[in-house]
Amino acid sequence: MFSALLCLALVASTSLVAATPLITHDRTAGSTVSNPPAWGPPPGPAYALTFTESGLPADLYWSVQLSHPGEPWLWSFNNSTNSSVGFSVPNGTYAFGIQNVTTASGGIFVATPSMGNVTVNGTAATVNIVFAELTEFNLAFNETGLPTGASW
């Protein structure tokens, strides 16, 4: 039975790169192997993957997290106060996540979609994101029909 402990080097970047194990330890055999990091540009040609938002007030930061195909634990992060956030990526299907945006006055803007998948296949791709401000309401609940003193 093989059991391994991996130490990975990760880099957040707008260009996706592969993570290479720096150290692999075989717990069964008790051996340790060092691997030099192999950073470089993505394999094959890279294409623009752009996320474009609407609905946010000016000058608010918003962000996109993007997974690496085949390595869902490895994410790239990019943010902007502009209406677009971009990455340069090779062909593949990428999972993405968009965080809520909070204003200085406490307003909260929620993205639609807030997560999903996008496929890049030989050409640039764009994902449109619409932010909407959450509206708060005060609610009051009144119970009827329970015996006096009953908990609800």
Oligomer: single chain
Side by side, the strands of the main sheet go 7-4-12-10-9
Helix/strand structural class:
mainly beta
> Describe the biggest sheet?
5 strands, mixed
Which architecture name of one domain does CATH use? Sandwich
CATH class call of one domain: Mainly Beta
Strands, total number: 12
Form type: elongated
User: Number of DSSP helices?
Assistant: 0
The Cα radius of gyration reads 23 Å
**SSE string, helix = H, strand = E?**
EEEEEEEEEEEE
Helix content: under 10%
SSE topology sketch:
Layout: E1 4-8, E2 21-26, E3 31-34, E4 47-54, E5 62-68, E6 71-80, E7 84-89, E8 92-98, E9 101-102, E10 108-112, E11 115-120, E12 125-133
Parallel strand pairs: 4-12
Antiparallel strand pairs: 1-2, 2-3, 4-7, 5-6, 5-8, 8-11, 9-10, 10-12
Describe this structure in words.
With 152 residues, the chain is an all-beta fold. The protein has a domain at 42-133: Carboxypeptidase-like, regulatory domain (Immunoglobulin-like, Sandwich), CATH 2.60.40.1120. The chain contains no helices and twelve strands. It has strands at residues 4-8, 21-26, 31-34, 47-54, 62-68, 71-80, 84-89, 92-98, 101-102, 108-112, 115-120, 125-133. The strands form three sheets. Strands 7-4-12-10-9 form a five-stranded mixed sheet, with no helix packed on it. Strands 6-5-8-11 form a four-stranded antiparallel sheet, with no helix packed on it. A hairpin with a 2-residue loop joins strand 5 and strand 6 (71-80). The radius of gyration is 23 Å and the shape is elongated. The N and C termini lie far apart (55 Å). The model is unreliable at 1-39 (pLDDT under 50).
